User: Fold this.
Amino acid sequence: MPRDYWKYEGVLAAPERVGYLPKLPLPHHDPSSPLAIADMADAFGVTHRALHFYEEKGLLIAARMGPMRVYGPDHIRRMAVINACREIDMPIAAIQELLSSLAGADDQTEAERLFKEALLSRRRELAAQQSNLRRQMQRIAELLESEAGYGEASPNDGEHVHLSPLESECLTFMAEGYPASRIARLMEMDLAAALTLEAGIIRKFSAHNRFQAIAKAVLSGMIAAE
Assistant:
């Protein structure tokens, strides 16, 4: 079980159950020695203000060595977890929840599992944000093209249709017969984004469905006929 106390030259930190923590790279120093706040900031590439903020949020606890604030080995390891989470822009509330869960971990295996679950959750959040950004960028492109008088295609051909690079890529997959679900995976977006993209292409070709849009694209020479 990780230590609840650490001692160094007569300094005793407040007792706190840190629990097991995931194994992450630590700064190069004697792991049994504490770090002064200046050294802690340098080691992890953060400011003193950031360390004070983490203390205010209950993520870290510093002890006193005379007038100097110092961090014990367990909180140096804890800072490695915090820093890793902040590098992926994990919200403070999520880090607090993770560290609270880690404090109750029964063994190292459980700690590694909890950390992995937190990372996977953050990855899902970032993927959703990426999908939203794609939709927003696509909508901006459509609005800009509309203002420029683009997309006013003849009902019979696609000669005057202008597609963004994202739309052109999607149209190619549509012409190859891929369903929207497969296109979403190939273009690394969610299904809703792929359907929105496809609907925009169909609208630009003044078509009623994807097959008409593909036919008009072939007739206009935008894609090669099989």
The two ends are 66 Å apart (CA to CA). Strands lie at 7-8, 11-12, 35-36, 63-65, 68-71. Residues 85 and 199 are 38 Å apart (CA to CA). Residues 1-15, 150-156 have pLDDT under 50 and may be disordered.
